[in-house]
Amino acid sequence: MDKFKIRGGQPLSGSVKISGAKNAALPILMASLLPSDKVMLSNVPDLHDVDTTLELLDCLGICHSSLNDNSVTIDPTTLNHFKAPYDLVKTMRASILVLGPLLAKTGKAEVSLPGGCAIGARPVNLHIEGLRKMGAHIDVENGYIKASVEGRLKGAEILLDTVSVTGTENLMMAAVLAEGETVIENAAREPEVIDLANFLNSLGANVRDAGCDTIHITGVEKLHGGEYSVMPDRIETGTFLVAALATGGSIRCENTDPASLDAVLKKLEEAGAEVEKGEDWITLKSQGRPKAVNIITAPHPAFPTDMQAQFCALNAIAEGTAGIRETIFENRFMHIPELRRMGANVESEGNTALCHGVEELTGAEVMCTDLRASASLVIAGLVATGETVVERIYHIDRGYEGIEKKLQGLGADIERVTA
Ligand SMILES: CC(=O)N[C@H]1[C@@H](OP(=O)(O)OP(=O)(O)OC[C@H]2O[C@@H](n3ccc(=O)[nH]c3=O)[C@H](O)[C@@H]2O)O[C@H](CO)[C@@H](O)[C@@H]1O
Ligand SMILES: C=C(OP(=O)(O)O)C(=O)O
């Protein structure tokens, strides 16, 4: 298993090119099975989760090119299977995103239940209930969601009990080929939901008001092929910005979308950073030791749960004390015991954590438990004195494209050790 060796203490400095967003690329790749002709996608990040998604498309018989220079061509006309097997789904929760498009396109889908994962139970009841409202017959048996529909799905009014990002996306993808109008209320407003809607509309779909809490979709009979470029990754951007501030550095993120990062940039400024932004870039200059900032995670446009662990690492070395409340996932503090191994003074109880900033973290051997926990450990390692060894970095490879190379380009002393 690969690990990172980090010798901390180097302020990050220079420019970094941000990759395409994992959480937009995955639904867009799944949605590429919907049209009746080829789709060419660019700015697709080279990530383990993207490989898994392409493997899932292979299982469905869908021909595609290999990912080359962050582009991939998908030919949905070869679709001839309808089962997403457990062996693949268990490695990536986002596999559930195949359910809506597959059912809409073929009238049949069998998708393994994704099950619980490190950060929480993460049920998919809203996906299932929404598709049932659209006329699907769904049984959950032997660990599989078995869905079918006679003819086309039917447009429906769907009120989501909880704001769900992939729930909204699954239902949106199903609705574009349904008969009539679908209204999704209490929809997720994340930028990746908008990117998916823009992609679908570029193929001839009729999705309106994505980014608002009520989305309207008028089904069409067919989608045509096309080309699309995936939006930049706001969480990767935020992770580099936090790393720069934590190390007392100064960086420029290029190829990014500042508008998708409002809540994060506000917190970075509150922590004492000088932030400037243009149409597709952000610069951050540290102004000395950061100040601890209170964080409450909530659905977009509030502070994203996917940035909580990174800010926890920042607070760990900041001046003062601040609280973190995680309202989205019930078990997303697994980085805290690892940060404590590096000398952090962070207490946690239930969904809250209290971070008392210390002046210095010290290198240690630490273990990744999930994607963003891994990012927080890398940030802590970049700040700590001495050597930090971050184990089980396969979690980070799920969602960060060449993170060690990008950090090396910013002057960090980090290397991948392949066992
Ligand atoms: C691939 C992808 O885009 N992943 C993102 C997506 O995950 P994901 O879409 O899985 O997260 P959701 O938005 O669905 O989860 C939000 C909350 O709703 C609950 N819930 C969800 C669905 C459901 O049917 N029933 C239910 O109760 C979840 O347990 C959680 O407490 O949004 C999360 C919240 O911004 C991010 O952390 C993930 O990075
Ligand atoms: C939780 C995340 O991803 P996923 O939903 O793919 O597990 C994440 O990107 O932080």
UniProtKB/TrEMBL annotation:
Q: Where is the Enolpyruvate transferase domain?
A: 7-407
Answer whether the UniProt record assigns the keyword Cell wall biogenesis/degradation to this protein: yes
- Cite the annotated pathway: Cell wall biogenesis; peptidoglycan biosynthesis
Q: Which reaction does it catalyse?
A: phosphoenolpyruvate + UDP-N-acetyl-alpha-D-glucosamine = UDP-N-acetyl-3-O-(1-carboxyvinyl)-alpha-D-glucosamine + phosphate
Task: Give the active-site positions.
Answer: 117 (proton donor)
Q: Which SUPFAM superfamilies match?
A: EPT/RTPC-like
Q: Which UniProt keywords apply?
A: Cell cycle, Cell division, Cell shape, Cell wall biogenesis/degradation, Cytoplasm, Peptidoglycan synthesis, Pyruvate, Transferase
| Gene Ontology cellular component terms for the protein in this record | cytoplasm
Q: Has the keyword Lyase been applied to this entry? A: no
Q: Which family does it belong to?
A: Belongs to the EPSP synthase family. MurA subfamily.
Q: State what protein this is by name.
A: UDP-N-acetylglucosamine 1-carboxyvinyltransferase
Q: What is the lineage of its organism?
A: Bacteria, Pseudomonadati, Pseudomonadota, Gammaproteobacteria, Alteromonadales
Q: Which gene encodes it?
A: murA
